[in-house]
Amino acid sequence: MMTLPVLGLVIPCFNEEDVLGETSARLISLLTRMRDEGLIHDRSAIFYVDDGSRDNTWALIKELSAVHKEVCGIKLSCNRGHQNALLCGLMTAPGDMIISVDADLQDDLEVIPKMVRHYREGCEIVYGVRKRRDTDTFFKRISAEGYYKLMAAMKIDIVFNHADYRLLSRRALDALSEYREVNLFLRGLVRQIGYQSAIVVYDRAERFAGESKYPLRKMISFAWQGITSFSTAPLRLITTMGFLVSLISGGLGLWGLATSLILNQALPGWTSTVVPMYFLGGIQLLSLGVIGEYVAKIYIESKGRPRFHIDKLEGDAFRKDLQE
Ligand code: UDP
Ligand code: MG
């Protein structure tokens, strides 16, 4: 008989004390069910990554891991953000396949067995894709869908309505570990791996406790991260803009010359001089800013600093004496 695959569930947690109890109860019962159905190995486990929480999250994780053998914890030295916490979990948790999911259970857990079945049929990557967005606010829905369309227009390869709910096989994780960038946009990176993949669709629920750890400010910076990490389209836009403006001003110059030489008329005055001046000044500053953003990225990347530091590990999966 084929040996069963070991599943690792990776859950980044930042100040999630309100949800961890319920999340654990549901994940443990899901793991038990899948074990009983002969879908996954007994050693399958849950890995909470505490992203430098300032509440009781780590204490709770320790407690849970003392009581339940399938619960493990990874504590980051300080808050490094969702993407880094996620990467830390993916790079640290053992297992033949890893599924990443948020702590707030907005993503329907019932598709996890489906992801595993795809894995067993030979897929290396399985994307969780949201069917509808009716639990989102109007603003979030419009902005998120607009964003995915903008990415597509820039030819950035991402899966529409897929966030960070996905399965990665060991082979895909090894491939991911070869991407050394510090500015992380995992959903874009995973697309570049290119191994055989599948999609499972689900409905997304509301966060059942606590509040979003992604305020608008973080969301915008993450969106910009996604674009600048995968596309130089904004730079090309500047070139196009420069070209168009030069063309137009050349035309205007000819027109001015013609009116004064042929019609012998003075050009009408102030507005036509001052408005384009400010306008061009604005465009130039904006362009410099965009170029600056890319330069800043090079600056950060060139240092190649570590993306996270693990402070503590907790749970059976990390105990050498329990491994065979
Ligand atoms: N998260 C994290 N570090 C952070 C911010 C968020 O690990 O700095 C985790 C958070 O605990 C949750 C996941 O990332 O498990 C997604 O966050 P959230 O559900 O608040 O985002 P939303 O669903 O509102 O976009
Ligand atoms: Mg959430």
TrEMBL record:
Its EC number is 2.4.-.-. Keywords: Glycosyltransferase, Membrane, Transferase, Transmembrane, Transmembrane helix. GO terms for molecular function: glycosyltransferase activity. It is an enzyme of class 2 (transferase). It is a multi-pass membrane protein. It is found in: Membrane. The chain crosses the membrane at residues 237-258, 278-300. CDD domains: DPM1_like_bac. It comes from the Bacteria. Gene3D superfamilies: Spore Coat Polysaccharide Biosynthesis Protein SpsA, Chain A (3.90.550.10). InterPro entries: Glyco_trans_2-like (IPR001173), Glycosyltransferase_2 (IPR050256), Nucleotide-diphossugar_trans (IPR029044). Signal peptide: none annotated. This is Uncharacterized glycosyltransferase YkoT. The lineage of its organism: Bacteria, Pseudomonadati, Pseudomonadota, Betaproteobacteria, Nitrosomonadales. The gene is ykoT.
